Amino acid sequence: MRRRSLGARLRDIREKAGVTADEAAMALDVHSSTIYRIERGKVGIKPRDVKTLLNRYGIDDEEQLGELEGLAREGRQRGWWAKYSDTISPPYATYIGLESEANYLYIYDAIIINGLLQTREYAESSFKFAPAGDPKQIGTRIQLRMDRQERLRLLKEGAELRDQSDDEPTGQSRPLQLWAVIDEAALRRMIGGKEVMEQQLSHLIEIAQYDGVTLQVLPFDGGAYPGMLGTFTILRFAGADPDVVYIEGKTGDVYEETEEQVRPYWQIFDSLRAAALSPVDTLERLRQRLRDVKDGVSDV
């Protein structure tokens, strides 16, 4: 995320200075493609190269230079998820980095409950549907899923979600607001059996009452909805960093980053949450579903 923020700012400075990517590349003695990769946050940049670029762009503001050099140093640091790098794909690692830095997450799930909201038992059961793999790697990926939930656990503990020092909160201590719309199908799909679903539904009921969390169920009885066949997450960040849409697919992860690409997802999400049950009615629907599971009531 730091790379992405730094890259966007360097691109903005370059364009305002009227310097082409080829001219910037000459200053660093690299190919122009490297400049584009830096500006898209795909690769890091050394602090001294940041200074070189700013000199080329005619910027001599020491405060601005210090800030951008700081972002460059932070962008070269390994995130908390780096220990899982041998079990996850680079695109998914990128998502975890974005998720860790986001201040707001807007999630829609149509098939199963989102990983951020899963119990360990539900997560373990969901992996049984995945192609056969190394049990150790699967166990590691489940632990990664649990680690991603740290910011929700802070909400549970009633933490203020900010460092007690003067430093800016980062990573797992960064404030989080979560708005999740879950299709009722995900609640009725019996993943892991009766006991697992009882635990999962109880977990959702608890999370739905956290400060900073809005949970809504999209009911069966409302019919069809725009975007109901897809699953996506909108990530929103503090400051001027643009929103990102993440779509996890069987053939690879997709990121939408431009305003034109992101806008339709906001329109879909607004339609979904308008059609979904209110948070209060969602709690009652979850409690009713939990009672049905405990009583063995059929969904048919």
TrEMBL record:
<dbReference type="InterPro" id="IPR010982">
    <property type="entry name" value="Lambda_DNA-bd_dom_sf"/>
</dbReference>
<feature type="domain" description="HTH cro/C1-type">
    <location>
        <begin position="10"/>
        <end position="64"/>
    </location>
</feature>
<dbReference type="Pfam" id="PF19054">
    <property type="entry name" value="DUF5753"/>
</dbReference>
<dbReference type="InterPro" id="IPR001387">
    <property type="entry name" value="Cro/C1-type_HTH"/>
</dbReference>
<dbReference type="InterPro" id="IPR043917">
    <property type="entry name" value="DUF5753"/>
</dbReference>
<dbReference type="Pfam" id="PF13560">
    <property type="entry name" value="HTH_31"/>
</dbReference>
<dbReference type="GO" id="GO:0003677">
    <property type="term" value="F:DNA binding"/>
</dbReference>
<protein>
    <submittedName>
        <fullName>Transcriptional regulator with XRE-family HTH domain</fullName>
    </submittedName>
</protein>
